[in-house]
Amino acid sequence: MNVEDQLNALIFFHLQEYTSARELIQVLKEDDFARNSIAPEDGISRSSFSEAINERGLEQFFYVFQELQKRAVSLLPKKYAHLGELISIDWSLIDAVLSMGWADYRNKSKKARLHLGFNVNQNIPQKLFLTDGKGAERPFVRQILEPGQTGILDRGYQDHQNFDGLQEEQKHFVCRIKGNTHKTCL
Predict the structure, then answer these.
(1) For residue range 102-131, what is the model confidence (pLDDT) as tens digits?
(2) Mean pLDDT of all residues in the chain?
(3) CA distance readout (Å), 24 to 43, 44, 98, 101
(4) Domain parsing of the chain, residue ranges
(5) What is the CB-side half-sphere exposure of residue 96 using CA atoms within 13 A?
(6) Helix (H, G, I), strand (E, B), or coil: what is residue 114?
(7) What is the spatial distance between Cα 100 and Cα 80, in angstroms, rounded to a whole number?
(8) Which of 79, 126, 149, 177 sits most deeply, having the most CB atoms within 10 A of its CB?
(9) What number of H helices and E strands is found in the chain?
(10) Handedness of CA 85, 89, 94, 100 (dihedral sign)
């Protein structure tokens, strides 16, 4: 199974909303479309599929994401160009399997945290980072935003030191803040 076969299988897995690799492998063997269009030419066993999934790191998939994202951004129109580059930033927890030792979250619970910068102008993810479930979200604002861009943040990102750093780096932001925040109009 090469990387392209693996990507096709994983995309098919998510589009069909299968619940296990066992179910996917069965479909790749029994379904005519899946066997002819998705599965590797010589087929794939469950053990070979599992080995390929465990052997290939995230680096290859991040590279594929980055290359596809670059191509898509060059083709997509900008809806709100007059407002500048708007990047919505948020995070989400993703269930992980117990063997993913790095995805520490709770006892007997593994979760990964996805930090996402979403390009609002072109309706496409711009940058993403993956950490363990307990990873902090605030430091990723500075990594996601580029100078001149405007981040759209929820109040969980409120951090006055981080706001100062963003301003020094010419990165703009709009952030919902806590009601009891002391405000001074400048």
Answers:
(1) 666 777 777 888 899 999 999 999 999 888
(2) 87
(3) 12, 11, 20, 24
(4) 3-55, 78-175
(5) 24
(6) strand
(7) 40
(8) 126
(9) 7, 6
(10) positive
